[in-house]
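Good day; I would like, with your permission, to put a structural problem before you. A protein sequence and the structure tokens that stand for its backbone fold form the material at issue. Thank you for your consideration; the sequence and its tokens are set out here:
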Amino acid sequence: MNGLPIVLENVSKFFGSTRAVDNLSLTLRTGSVCGLLGPNGSGKTTTIRMIMSILLPDSGEVRLWGAPAAGAVRKHVGYLPEERGLYATMTVFDHLIFLAELHDLSRREAKSAVEEWSERFTTNGESSPKSWWGRRVQELSKGQQQTVQLIGALLHRPGLVILDEPFSGLDPVHTSHLRTIVRHLKESGIAVLLSTHRMEQAERLCDDICLIHHGRAVLSGALREVKSAAASRFVELRMDRVPDFLKPDELIAGVEMVSDGARIRLQQGADAQMVLARAIRRGRVLKFEIVEPSLDDLFIEAVSR
């Protein structure tokens, strides 16, 4: 397959008079993880459904590997939807074989793939999914059911994997193991589109981000470059008193009080030294450090413009 796994160009989608996605453009490179980020209701799932050809855009274009999306979806894309959809009374093994055969794998190929991925999804301190094969889906925990559905999305060896809110409801063990699987996919040259409102998970996994709000992209690019561009606007301050004199003004865009001081977001172009001078006039400064912003910081800044 040639070309970029995903290209969206000026895509919009309406539901009645509501514009769910507004002139959105996005690219995803082979062997990379791109975070489609934003709060609930921002348009992430609608965007994914257009990539999957579940919905058609009202304007703009969706291409997978340079071709219209519809032709590539079934054969080359693995999809874990936000809504978990498994047949509760089927056994795990039969369900996985069924999902594999939907992607045109033979019975022999399906069984081999199910065995391979069941072993790969074995976590420390927990039984292998292979030990669940004879159990009905309804007998599994939520984390185990999600594991089964994700295995089903990978059996046909897709070149693109789309994960919609995959960390929702997972305990720390399953969360950590899912991160390991995403990194394995990336190392195998598979492109991953990760949709989430969990900024801390995106920060650990993503090479690129597209942050959307009210259906529009408000921040996008390589994560490292996006964070570097904003690095001079975030300061951590600790004093011998509570710095409750810090308020939003011409220098300060926002203040978050933390246990040992304050985290300050500066206005665009503001000089951090002026904030330091203000603090020195109010008390003894124990720490004043310009820090790299987190994705949470960037998100709050982007949506408050």
Summary: The chain has a mean pLDDT of 90.
